[in-house]
Design a protein that fits this description.
Number of helices: 4
Largest sheet: 2 strands, antiparallel
Structural class: mainly alpha
Distance between the termini: 16 Å
Number of strands: 2
Strand content: under 5%
Number of domains: 1
Low-confidence stretches: 28-33
Helix content: 25-40%
């Protein structure tokens, strides 16, 4: 399936999501300038796992994709960045096979209070279901 038709299909199923095109993603990856990245967590925006909605701060820190599944490093929350599947894949293509930074990404499942993220094995079933309900 061509890139355009895949993106159009995803956008049709998820009209509230922002899915960058391959060109937008490539342009984003090539830019080195600072971006206006929202805070990783924002307790003023609680999350309701029963709804298929993401808070405004749940944004890919590389391309700006919203409303999609994001991954994060399994490190201190003050140092993490959130990446969508496309950006994780692009980063992995550009990394040495021995570089563990991008291979150690885990699901970015925020707590319902949106004040931190669940650990690799500590997320509740509701949080996992919420994350899995988001488009890739």
């Amino acid at each position: 399936m061509e890139e355009k038709s895949v993106i159009e299909a995803i956008r049709a199923m998820n009209p509230d999501s922002y899915i960058p095109t391959g060109k937008e993603l490539a342009d984003s990856l090539s830019q080195k300038e600072d971006k206006n990245i929202p805070p990783v967590v924002d307790p003023s925006q609680r999350i309701d796992y029963s709804q298929n909605k993401t808070p405004s701060n749940y944004v890919c820190h590389n391309c700006g994709a919203t409303g999609v599944r994001l991954w994060r490093e399994n490190i201190d929350i003050s140092k993490i960045s959130l990446l969508c599947f496309g950006c994780c894949s692009k980063c992995n293509e550009n990394q040495d096979a021995n570089d563990k930074k991008n291979r150690l990404r885990i699901r970015a499942i925020p707590t319902e209070e949106n004040d931190t993220f669940w650990g690799k094995k500590s997320a509740p079933k509701e949080g996992i279901s919420w994350w899995e309900s988001l488009p890739v």
